[in-house]
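User: What would this chain look like folded?
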Amino acid sequence: MNKICRENITSGSTMIDEHLTFEPVEKGTKFTQVYDMKVGGLLKLFTPMVVSTMRKEMRANLSNLKSILEAQS
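Assistant: Here's the prediction, encoded as structure tokens.
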């Protein structure tokens, strides 16, 4: 059974719509995370840098989580 979590965050001229989906697969759970960001004002100029930083942080965080979960198995 799929589980879906959704969160909307608004701060100033920035709006983030986050979707998390957890789907059962043969050897565990498939996790999908999608961010839809709308940025206004001067922050719009920094969007590529923010997206790049978020991707790097997310990869590092998921790698750490994987290590933790596998160590407990």
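Residues 3-71 form one domain. If you want, I can go into more detail on any region.
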